[in-house]
Amino acid sequence: MSTGERWSAMAALVDRSRRALYDYVCRADHPVTREEAAEAHGMSRNLTAFHLDKLVESGLLRAHYQTPADQPRGRGRTPKVYEAAGDGLAITVPERRYELIAEILADAVADDPHDAPEAARRHARQRGRDIGARVRDAGEDLVAVLAGLGFEPEALGAEVMLRNCPFHALATRQTALVCGLNHAFLAGLVDGAGRTDLLPRLAPHPGACCVRLERRPPAA
Questions:
Q1: Which of 26, 32, 151, 184 could cross-link 121 (Cys pair, CB 3.0–4.6 Å)?
Q2: What distance in Å separates the CA atoms of residue 135 and residue 158, rounded to the nearest whole number?
Q3: CA 2 to CA 14: how far, in whole Å?
Q4: Number of CB atoms found within 10 A of residue 170's CB
Q5: Other C-beta atoms within 10 Å of 76: how many?
Q6: What is the pLDDT of residue 199?
């Protein structure tokens, strides 16, 4: 996949309506028609079709034509149906934060189009640091903030396991890129919050976030 295609796939989920349709298709236990998705979200059929087809173009959904089980073969038009590409259909869909990573990527491309990945890491760390500073100033609990961001944190003694990746669909397609941004974001968050006791480390684990907040070793 080219760099342009990577940004396209990630930016496709910035639109709230499009993201809601994507999550709906992922949750469904069957291929979803345009009519079904439109009714579920109160959208017009044409607008629903536009968003679904954009998700197909971005590689996040796939589409084909399928005759409904209750319709005799050869009767009526065969509807177009959509399902998640890759493992999306098989997963549960907890809270996702695609708009956050899309904003980081958009800012990075605008900042340095010649080295967007490195710019994205800088922006991710700064975004995390800004949020962390607000957490510190407000006296909020970092674990509660991580839960609000969709990480599903679980305190394990002095460490924190992150049970969910808020950017799952993108991480399964571009693991190194997205996990690097996730690590940079969480490093900035911990730094901004003043949590010198925690050290974000890349620790990929099936069914969990690629980053784990470990206890920082004491200074020598």
A1: 184
A2: 19
A3: 20
A4: 25
A5: 9
A6: 95
